[in-house]
Design brief:
With 359 residues, the chain is an alpha/beta fold. The chain is built from 14 helices and ten strands. Bound molecules: NADP nicotinamide-adenine-dinucleotide phosphate.
Length: 359
């Protein structure tokens, strides 16, 4: 029996994780956490004793003795749980990419001390993780992350000036929470994923590529030194990578049908448009410069997306504000968690100030 602490239980990933756990007798939920939604009813239905709404989630983790922590909190708020889990050598199923992006070096150091597994839940990283299995690092040439391109794929920068919140939230292939859906529309999500991949797979940024693949059937690819490329294919459904992370290395059955090739399957790939979607290049640059800049990228994006969703910033303002914040903050090495948290707070303050100064 694997005891799973589910953080972000009321969200898109959280709800799908509950479905997976309920379908597998060898999985058991030992704790549930949310940000503000009450959990009593859900906990009673699922028979879970330990719950927490908001606050410091490490207090919940201390109480519930998990074998696996599924961190599906959205945003930088997921960081303490990521660090707590890695430090203690407990397996971390990570959906909360923001914590690894912001604190990559510190998180990997904590994992090295703790000795637990870091299992990606993001579908792209789960795909790469699976394609890499059994292959030593020296055989790997590069990895290719696929991006659906979001609802605005094919539009020029000018055509993005007046897009609305509702249009940005209408993702063509994935059904997800609002923040990641907007991140997919700006390609910030793919930028976060490039940084996430750098830390998860230990590859330099020059060997992490992004390709636009509208149907999201190929979840990502790994190129090897002999010219072979392995790809991971499946219908776009997060229950597959969630199940893989929770049942690893067993690969349990899911209700998903196998791909139907007889129905016809066309796989298209193209280069991302970095002019219309500058967040991808901004993230890559922040990742390459390192230190506290990935945390600043993430913080600026979180502030900008919240403002866009609240109707206070236009769509193109998300990238403009993030660029301004990255130019304004110093980007120092993050030697410990306190420095990182301070850098996150400074980037948020700068973003808020810059927004207030805008006409
Ligand atoms: N959805 C996907 O398909 C998908 C795919 C790949 C990766 N991810 C990643 O998975 C994470 C979750 O995404 P999502 O789409 O599931 O988001 P979501 O639907 O917005 O759910 C977010 C969850 O986080 C909780 N939460 C927010 N702030 C919190 C806090 N301060 N403390 C504790 N819990 C907090 C929310 O609780 P309340 O309901 O109470 O606010 C909710 O349960 C994100 O990092 C995202 O990038 C998601």
């Amino acid at each position: 029996m694997k005891r799973i602490a589910l953080l972000g239980a009321t969200g898109s990933i959280g709800r799908q994780a509950i479905e997976i756990v309920e379908a597998h007798p060898e999985l058991e939920l030992c704790a549930l956490a949310s940000g503000s939604q009450p959990l009593d009813e859900l906990a009673a239905r699922l028979g879970v004793r330990h719950t927490q709404v908001g606050g410091d989630l490490t207090e919940l983790l201390e109480r519930c003795e998990p074998d696996v922590v599924l961190n599906a909190v959205v945003g930088f708020a997921g960081l303490p749980a990521t660090m707590w889990t890695l430090e203690r050598g407990i397996d971390l199923a990570l959906a909360n990419k923001e914590s690894l992006v912001a604190a990559g070096d510190l998180a990997l150091a904590a994992q090295a001390r703790g000795g637990g597994r870091l299992l990606p839940v993001d579908s792209e990283h789960s795909a790469v993780f699976q394609c890499l299995e059994g292959h030593p690092a020296e055989q790997v040439h590069s990895i290719v992350l696929t991006a659906s391109g979001g609802p605005f794929r094919g539009r020029t920068r000018t055509e993005l000036v007046e897009v609305t919140r509702e249009e940005a939230l209408a993702h063509p292939t994935w059904s997800m929470g609002p923040k990641i859906t907007v991140d997919s529309a700006t390609l910030a999500n793919k930028g976060l994923e490039v940084i996430e991949a750098h830390y998860l797979f230990g590859l330099p940024y020059s060997r992490i590529e992004v390709t636009v693949h509208p149907t999201s059937i190929v979840h990502s690819l790994v190129r090897f030194r002999d010219g072979a490329t392995l790809a991971h294919l499946g219908y776009p459904d997060m229950r597959v990578p969630i199940s893989y992370a929770l049942t690893y290395p067993e690969r349990a059955a899911t209700p998903l049908p196998p791909l139907d090739f007889a129905a016809g399957l066309t796989l298209e790939f193209s280069a991302p448009d970095l002019d219309a979607f500058p967040m991808l290049a901004l993230a890559r640059a922040a990742g390459e410069r390192g230190g506290t800049l990935p945390a600043a990228f993430n913080a600026a994006n979180e502030v900008a997306v919240a403002a866009f969703l609240a109707g206070r910033l236009p769509f193109l303002g998300i990238a403009a504000l993030t660029e301004q914040v990255l130019a304004a903050v110093p980007g120092t090495p993050a030697r410990d968690l306190d420095e990182l948290v301070a850098a996150d707070a400074e980037a948020r303050r700068t973003a808020t100030l810059l927004m207030a100064l805008q006409p």
